[in-house]
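Field: COMPLEX_INPUT
Field: COMPONENT_COUNT = two
Field: RESIDUE_TOTAL = 517
Field: MODE = joint
Values follow.
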Amino acid sequence: MIPLYFDPGTGALIVQFLAAAVAGFLLFYRTLLHKIKSIFGIKGKEEDDFMDETDSKEKQE
Amino acid sequence: MESKRNTSSFRDPSGYVFIEDNKVKRIINPIYFEQYKALTDSGFYKTLFDKKYLIPHQEVSKTDSKISIEASKILFVNYPYEWSFLQYKHAALLTLKIQKLCLENNFTLKDASAFNITFHEGKPIFIDTLSFDFYQENNPWLAYKQFIMHFLGPLILTKYFGQDHLKTLSQNLEGISLQKLSQLLPFKSYFNPTILTNIHLLAKYDKKYESDKKTVNNNLSKASQIKLLDGLYDFISNLSVNEKTEWDHYYNQINYDEAAYQFKKEVVKDWFLSIKGESLIDIGGNDGTFSREVKDVAKLIIVADVDPNAVEQNYKQALKNKEKMILPIVADVLNPSANYGFNNEERFSFIDRVKDSNLDGCLALAVIHHITLSGNIPFSLSAQFFSKMAPNLLIEFPTRGDSWVQFLLDSKREFKNHFDFYNEENFEKEYSVYFEIINKQKIASFERILYSLKRR
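Field: COMPLEX_OUTPUT
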């Protein structure tokens, strides 16, 4: 590993675990909501990807 | 052979950038050889090039003590404090996309500076070839704090307090401090779980462990880090800013009838063809309506405007129409970005970068009356400014009979007489110091004149 030219911050490294857990919960909730909506035929707005990648949305769980 | 080390490139010991014979080259030091070899041999560099995530490079020479590569040249490097909200968002999202792709290929971004991104050929692109390192299983993202300080911080401040905060990095080249960011945000931001964890809690932990330099590893699985990245991606994609600017009212006030509008478009096109140009800067170019007239013949059109909403509108249009040649940036003629950083040589001023790009033409439509009458800039000084932009200038001069000019003059109240100099004769006299008048066309039935000028 290359030594960093800046301090990554001990706190910032620790807190990522918590931030990831919360993000995981939010993503789960969003997916669930999306599924419920799709049962009723409600589609979310589709936006074009700014890098012209069609698969980027699917990649995100 | 002229060779000059780039004065912005000194932070990372892995290597540095220099300019040689007008080419952008990068020296890689032995400390980074292993990474460079892995990135090249695994094909990951190529993947990044193919996706247009990273500026392409080619190896030029290789010895035991250094490897030299040449990168594709970017004609006009632009900085975070020159982007509209949507551009800033896309730069942040690209950084997250790259980090995610890195993880999938067992690499990681070792830094996440917003200066690692610039807009090129219509899209954001990562320009720091040596920012990649090997991913160590279950290690957290070392650049996470930097990402928040450079990207999420300014974006959130903009959401709550307006687009002035997009310029945060001009005053804080290392990003906004987490403590300050957390303190500035309103109480309601605590109820947003993403802001709560990624800003408030982060600031708290950062403070708590300030003097503790212990190593933290093995606390975050790759799957969790991807969740963290996806969460940030999702949150940033959905960020919006609701701030009306002058531009939003512009087309209701615009001082043109259809015929005059078309005439102006024709003149712009004819002028650009006559100078046989390839590159253009449009000062006060709004959403790029007029400079788009030359998009089929130009390689680069920088459309600079002070209004972030106009710039954003232009960027959206350029993305939608895949107009690679159009580069919308936020720039204030009355206060263009300065030389920032150590020795004043780290981030270059707007004028220095324009000069370095050797543009062929400059367009200045419906802008001189604002510069002169709102900015109180004498003709001699604005002429000097425009002479630095390009050798050819097409400038529109609204005469005193123009209703906008009248409005601006009336706003001067008792000071109005001070602007008696604002007329055609004085304009021509002062501009003749820097330029030769090639052509002068009146816009029919209109109080405006289009001058085609050539730098002396």
